[in-house]
Design a protein that fits this description.
This protein is an alpha+beta fold and 75 residues long. The protein has one helix and three strands, in the order βββα.
């Protein structure tokens, strides 16, 4: 079976590396110095996440990513 997931990508200000997290899979993330390496690492992280999930319970429908919104807050 094939799934499609949304990767949120941020840049770590200290190391400059890219950090990817999967919107639909809480706790599924990886990092890499380039986008190409991050994509490869994320595919691997998602595969391991799904395999671990299958061992505990059947795969359920995943949440649907809706979007991002930026908000300005005075502090």
């Amino acid at each position: 079976m094939s799934y499609e997931f949304t990767i949120i990508i941020e840049r770590d200000p200290e190391s400059g590396w890219l950090i990817g997290s999967v919107a639909e899979l809480p706790g599924c993330y990886s990092q890499a110095p380039s986008l190409a390496e991050l994509e490869s690492n994320m595919r691997e992280a998602i595969q391991v996440y799904l395999e671990t999930l299958e061992e505990r319970e059947p795969l359920e429908p995943f949440p649907t990513f809706v979007g991002l919104q930026r908000v300005e807050v005075a502090a």
